[in-house]
Design a protein that fits this description.
Elements (H helix, E strand, L loop, with lengths): L1 H56 L4 H11 L1
Helix pairs in contact: 1-2
Length: 73
Amino acid sequence: MCYVSGVSGIWMAAGGLLLLGLWVAVIGLGAWGLWRLTRGRQGEHEALAVASERYARGEIGRDEFERIKKDLS
């Protein structure tokens, strides 16, 4: 009897660890997805700011600035 209880206890512990790992993976994936979404939008704003600065300094022309704005939106 003790042998069966010991084996079933090991399987219960293994199942609990697998379930914990699944939850960690789901929460981690969700956090990573949110981070990517917010970081991606920030990158677009930074790129547009750089293009605006280059346009203001005369490094790029109006046509190129408009093309960059169109590509970023």
